[in-house]
Design goal:
By secondary structure, this protein is mainly α. The protein has two domains: 2-372, no CATH class; 387-453, Tetratricopeptide repeat domain (Serine Threonine Protein Phosphatase 5, Tetratricopeptide repeat, Alpha Horseshoe). It is built from 23 helices and no strands. It is globular, with a radius of gyration of 23 Å. The termini are far apart.
Length: 460
């Protein structure tokens, strides 16, 4: 049968299905949610000058240290300017390459002669709707880029490449997104699974890079006037261990039931959760995977991979008050795909189910991609789930003001001010919409400084 002889066909089919599922993203625009600071209004990427390259590699940009991601944007800018098609195409090509690498790694880890286990693992990874945010959002280039180098480094190690080669690929992953700092632990786990233990001396260089990159990232996000790591006042320390269980189980739930995916999920204060219940369920699931490790080794291995790769965003050091996001699961979800792929390769019934599930996931992914079509569709979707979401109200106020729909802008701006009366962003954007509509007196009541900003000597 073809499954025994042609692994290339299996990898190619998984890649093709992935491209089909995500193809609508090529028609998406930039969105007014980090895309301006990362791409359209980022002066560092507009020319490959020594000064710009130095800035990329020596200082955080937008609270992030990911110089290779900035460099990839700069290369895109030289080719495409501000045309979003090229940026989406790069994201899609990188995601497709990651699917091929997942197939290669799964084929090695699952130690199966047939291609079915590796095919289903790669296909699930590629076409699952949880991938959409990382692929369809230009800003999340860092997800697909760091994962490319991360998986390439793991694949190189399984092919017995020299450690300096593996270290260089890992360094590229870490310079694409700091989340790659989990690599030394995954490498150690992989070495045990494949019976090729690594020594402390061999792992040390990876640990050093992880420590440096991790420290730089934490300092960048925890300091300054716009620190992004949640404080103890926002998310108390005593609930964070239970928050680990919440985050881990959240993505398991969305993986198994990929509906009602949101660009912005409820904040910590809006969770209405039971820390004890989530902690208990998380521990029980972990124990179950451990108990079944002999009968289903891929289940335990996949669970460990999932937890380790998710650990930077698993709730101990939350970035902001939103504790979960689809993009956080980009690499980690591979740990959930592995056991399902293994089961699909072993049992005919499971294989039949997955043959039906994969096309269904493709449809959901194509549908979810349209959410990211532009700023309006993105934040309208957010409001569909949460009519009082402040970032959505603020951004849509700006969007409709810029596009001349001032009545809609004012209505949304008034809702934003009602939700957050003390928000400077909400009040300023409403005032600008009112001013554009010729309602200057109302605008000045909302935002008195507008009088100075609108004067000949002002900044506007």
């Amino acid at each position: 049968m073809v499954g025994k002889r042609l692994p290339g066909l299996g990898a190619g089919t998984a890649v093709l299905l992935t491209l089909i599922a995500h193809l609508p993203a090529l028609w998406n625009d930039f969105v007014w949610w980090d895309d301006p600071t990362h791409v359209t209004q980022n002066p560092v990427i507009r020319a490959l000058t020594w000064e710009n390259l130095q800035a990329m590699f020596t200082q955080p940009i937008a609270k992030l240290y990911c110089p290779l991601t900035w460099l990839s944007f700069a290369l895109d800018y030289q080719l495409w300017g501000r045309n979003p098609v090229g940026y989406h195409l790069t994201n899609l090509v990188l995601h497709a390459a990651n699917v091929a690498l997942v197939f290669a790694l799964a084929h090695r880890l699952l130690a199966a002669e047939r291609i079915w286990p590796a095919f289903f693992t790669a296909a699930l990874f590629g076409v699952h709707p949880l991938r959409v945010e990382s692929v369809a959002w230009v800003t999340e280039r860092k997800d697909v880029l760091f994962t490319f180098f991360y998986l390439l480094a793991l694949w190189a190690w399984t092919r017995q490449a020299r450690l300096p080669v593996v270290w260089t690929l890992f360094l590229a992953a870490a310079l694409s997104k700091p989340t790659a700092v989990t690599f030394p632990v995954v490498l150690w786990l992989l070495s045990r699974w494949l019976g090729r233990p690594v020594t402390a001396v061999q792992v040390a260089p990876f640990l050093v890079v992880s420590l440096v990159i991790g420290t730089v990232t934490v300092l960048a996000q925890a300091t300054g006037p716009e620190q992004t790591i949640a404080t103890a006042a926002a998310i108390p320390w005593h609930v964070r261990p239970a928050l680990v269980g919440y985050c881990a189980l959240f993505y398991v739930g969305k993986f198994l039931w990929p509906f009602a995916l949101r660009p912005i999920y409820p904040t910590f204060d809006e969770l209405h959760w039971s820390p004890v219940a989530y902690a208990t369920a998380f521990i029980a699931l972990t124990v179950l995977c451990f108990v079944l490790r002999q009968k289903q080794p891929s289940l335990w291995r996949g669970w460990l991979f999932y937890l380790v790769t998710l650990s930077p965003t698993i709730g101990i050091l939350p970035v902001g008050i939103h504790v979960v996001a689809d993009r956080y699961s980009y690499l980690a979800i591979l740990g959930l795909c592995l056991p399902l792929g293994s089961v699909g390769g072993q049992w005919r019934v499971a294989r039949g189910v997955l043959v039906v599930v994969v096309p269904a996931l493709m449809y959901l992914t194509a549908l979810q991609t349209t959410v990211w079509r532009n700023t309006e569709t993105l934040f309208r979707t957010v409001l569909d789930h949460d009519p009082t979401n402040l970032p959505a109200l603020i951004n849509l106020t700006k969007w409709y003001t810029a596009h001349g729909d001032l009545d809609t802008a004012i209505a949304l701006g008034q809702r934003a001010v009602t939700v957050a009366p003390n928000s400077d962003f909400a009040r300023l954007n409403l005032a600008v919409a009112l001013q554009r509509a010729g309602r200057l007196d109302e605008a000045l009541k909302v935002w008195p400084p507008l009088a100075n900003e609108s004067s000949p000597n002002g900044s506007r």
